[in-house]
């Protein structure tokens, strides 16, 4: 026998001990411990739903806190048990009855069974032999024969296939390795005569699920082998479904490279045996060319490609069938390879939606697609290269393909931020959490305990002229300048991406840019959890208050986006306060002609309206949300400021939290509110006029330092900046952007800006990327600005002309 052999990695023993079905079964008594009974019941109901209906994950599950590492196995075991006991799991039990156990050297006479798949029926034998204690290997063994070419009087009426089926069963009993289970199917339709048709793919998937779930099969020791007609499918579906198998073996068959992409074999043990004289249909030539292609890939990637292509000397179409399954039997699947090569093709009209830890939910706009994905454990970075073919067949990079990366603790370090680089461009960087909803969905997709992934990162396609699908439709109303940032933000949303897209599509067209502003600038934790209805309410109600308030016409859009639209100020709990506060307050607040007058009323009545009072020790925590303060009845300066700012925003008054982490001479910090009425004003004690100085203004003048971060004054911003608001109760939290406004308190200067010509004009002052002040006046308009800064001045005169200049103080 001449042989072209290449050795490589063998078993990943850890996979079997961590993820085998017996390990799961042993731990089910404590499985539900990390989750409350209501959550477990919701999970059970979800698995009980019709699998074809793809029901949404229950909201109560999506809102669960991230899973702790120490709880991960218990949650996974609970999910597996629930899946096993669900109607879908029990249906799989009926799919694959108990195996017929062979004894000694008897000639097998097992009972045949039948598997309905699509509109076909696939007869099969299910055999077991040898030592079957513990996790068991499974072989799916496909017989030779093929198509009757329309001559078969019935789907199972061609005697050639019946004979080949019985021969394959005999080989399983007498020749193939012991200590294993064998699923030996018969061709479902002799006039089709192909093992790779779509209904066959469905059958193999269900059989593997059932074997793992109910027959103690090791998910990392499932093998696909075939003879002649079956050998062609061992090539095709070996490559197409490589993530399912530990190995694939072709005996007396061969396939062209395009039918079984060799790059897909990177993490699969693959062996082909062919007779030296098997020249019909160029079978030996096909194997030799395939060996050459695999050899080149192996040379370029020594850590991949476990393969053995063997030409048996002197043999024709009949060969020795023993070596191939014995060789495969030595190898196990690695379900979490650090590198994946995936050529995405269709086999009998179907494509693969998951491949190891990658998923492709939507049809790619181009065919074929070439994906090379690697994980660098040292840097916690996922590198993905995606290519398509141009008109000349040359492979070129493309960003048109949306993907999801499934992740677990074997692939990344959850304690560090994860970075995703696609085609040399960073598309995601941030923390990743373990989530129950992701575990549920990934289990349902493949029914494989090794593929119960606790986390995922969505990587949307780039929205250019070739973009399609839900992302592109949501971008129609988004300004071009926002689109890349929005795509990046959606890419960081993981399984919550659909909720964010839903919000973009639910708001009115003219409000879509505001929804995009929120998604682009929101903290990463919010991208992972905020829901469509919450965000839609924020956008639509904020627009209503802006446009209907008596002063709305004088509020620039930038200030609306930054200081009315946002649903949060600092790191407080995300309460849906807007509609409640608007309905309580707007009728009275809108009786006033200016934001300042309305704020004086709000500040004076706040305690009585909400029954919340200041107390430094009785409040439960400093960073209380509005409803947390209302429930407690007490709040610190921070909690009261958050409540007041949200009240202002609910009636269309721009408001923001301002604070100093530490005074220079007095211990402690302080937070307060600023509101906008042509410029920013500090809201002082109850009922005070923001235009009057108070103790905060006086202390800021003498006990702050703009050059020392912990003695500076910060204004919380929703728009991303290069600074963060120091949260003295959580100094490691850098999620709240900020502006350093110290000099507006400690180094103020009165200036007058001249309006060109004789008429009135609107004067706008910009600094730090946003508007600082805006007033209408004649000839000379006064402002209070900070020294040591440069400002951009824009003056719109009565004749509509715009005049611009730079002011340095």
Q: Kindly report the average pLDDT value.
A: 89
> Kindly, what is the distance between the CA atoms of the first and last residues, rounded to a whole number of angstroms?
89 Å
Q: pLDDT under 50 segments (min length 5)?
A: 1-32, 463-469
Strand content: 15-25%
- Tell the overall outline: elongated
Largest sheet: 10 strands, mixed
Number of strands: 35
Helix content: 25-40%
Q: For the CA atoms, what is the radius of gyration?
A: 34 Å
Structural class estimated from helices and strands: alpha+beta
Total helices: the number is 25
Key terms:
alpha+beta; 6-stranded mixed beta sheet; 809 residues; 10-stranded mixed beta sheet; single chain; 25 helices; 24% strand; disordered N terminus; elongated
List the helices and strands and how they pair.
Elements: E1 2-6, H1 13-19, H2 21-26, H3 37-48, H4 59-62, H5 72-85, H6 87-95, E2 100-101, E3 113-117, E4 120-129, E5 136-142, H7 159-174, E6 180-185, H8 198-214, E7 217-227, H9 229-240, E8 247-251, E9 269-275, H10 283-300, E10 306-312, H11 323-328, E11 339-344, E12 346-347, E13 350-351, E14 354-355, E15 358-359, E16 369-376, E17 381-389, E18 395-397, E19 403-407, E20 418-422, E21 425-430, H12 436-446, E22 455-459, H13 469-474, H14 480-491, H15 497-506, H16 512-521, H17 524-527, H18 532-548, H19 557-563, H20 578-589, H21 595-610, E23 613-614, H22 626-632, E24 634-635, H23 637-650, E25 655-660, E26 670-676, E27 680-683, H24 695-702, E28 714-716, E29 738-740, H25 743-746, E30 748-754, E31 760-767, E32 770-778, E33 780-786, E34 790-797, E35 802-808
Parallel strand pairs: 2-4, 5-6, 5-7, 7-8, 8-9, 9-10, 17-20, 23-24
Antiparallel strand pairs: 1-10, 3-4, 4-6, 11-16, 12-13, 14-15, 15-19, 16-17, 17-18, 19-22, 20-21, 25-26, 25-28, 26-27, 28-29, 30-33, 31-32, 31-34, 34-35
